[in-house]
Amino acid sequence: MTLQLPAMPTLAARTIAVDAPEDLLALIPDGGMAWVRRGDGMIAWGEVARFDSRGSSRIDDAATWWRRLTRHAVVRDDVHVRGSGLVAFGSFSFADASVHGGTLIVPRFILGAREGRGFLTEISDDGAHGHAPDLASALGTTTPAAPLPRLTEEDGDRDAWNAAVESAVARIRAGEVDKVVLARAVGAHADSPVDPRSLMPYLAREYDGCWTFHVDGLVGATPELLARVDHGLVTSRVLAGTIRRTGDETADLARAASLAHSSKDREEHAFAVRSVTQVLASHCASVNVPDEPFVLHLPNVMHLATDITGSLDHAATVLELVRELHPSAAVCGTPTLAAARLIDSLEGLDRGRYAGPVGWIDGAGDGEWCIGLRSAEIDADDPRQVRMFAGCGIVAASEPASEWAESEAKLEPMRHALRLG
Ligand SMILES: C=C(O[C@@H]1C=C(C(=O)O)C=C[C@H]1O)C(=O)O
């Protein structure tokens, strides 16, 4: 049998050096994408190619498409930093069965900043390569972000949450799973469309240790790095185990110490570290896993955190690793399949692309993918509608009231960005 594959466009990418932009997020044209941390990163706009996928092979299919697309691409890159050359941005649903599926988008323009160096990439699909892009004409006549409309938040269903957490604890005690992550969605609506550009400057400023992103209507500032691949080196930041901040420095230091010693949180954390380490070990010649987690301080919460690194022993692309790492125990549970089934039966929610992978990949397969946490999805059909999400790892010792409080703290970045509280 001969399988007829769709013809692929021949892409050409040209990257030139430009002055490093002071504030990338201030320059995004309408509908543009973003991936920014501590002033470094990329904004991207226009669309040269796009791949939409659904179902359990959505990440695999996207990885295959990207491999085929990049094989014949012509890349001329004067800058050679992370993110220069040919790049696609993407985001994928948390669940296999989600109607939201996933997408990889190849933009026409990418403007980036990396350690004081700026770059501009133009990607074309018409065989016209070689000419150097011009920043002023690439940006065109950008309309500024529409001011944020006043939003109204829907009431949360606390009884449903309590019941879900109680059932999860009972199922854990019965030995069905060790840990399950339960999430809830909070809807908000406005009279006029919500422009992601009006949310990101706040997120990037207040949560500068997080990755502020916008890809296809999913916007947020996530602290959790699923996988970065950079010239054979892979890095993952695992978070699990959370405590709220009080705003009082001394009290927060005491809380950080209690988090570091809490057996409930350390157990929850160990599950997540193990799930990531197992995957990386199968691709790496060596993996470095610190013995003890550190406490990551964010403005709203503190997390137990472990940075895992490894050197790849074969040419795996970042998307191949993402496919295997997702869903990690930090957002699904342990064991994975049983936890995913429990989420389906207890949550009553399509998480969409919340808690799914979001990030970018370059022509060599390097890139950076996070877990789409501390995020909101702007409805593609009606951008006046927004859904925020937050979830908590449930273990045998979990209590509904403190998990509710934890989820409230995790909603804070998006609530504040949307001026809801
Ligand atoms: C599920 C979320 O966060 C995850 C769950 C955590 C926990 O349960 O302690 C901590 C960080 C994330 O891995 C979320 O932010 O919605």
TrEMBL record:
Keywords: Isomerase. InterPro entries: ADC_synthase, Chorismate_C, IsoChor_synthase. Residues 158-410 form the Chorismate-utilising enzyme C-terminal domain. The keyword Isomerase applies. It catalyses: chorismate = isochorismate. It holds the Pfam family Chorismate_bind. One of its GO terms (molecular function) is isochorismate synthase activity. Its EC number is 5.4.4.2. Belongs to the isochorismate synthase family. This is isochorismate synthase. The lineage of its organism: Bacteria, Bacillati, Actinomycetota, Actinomycetes, Micrococcales.
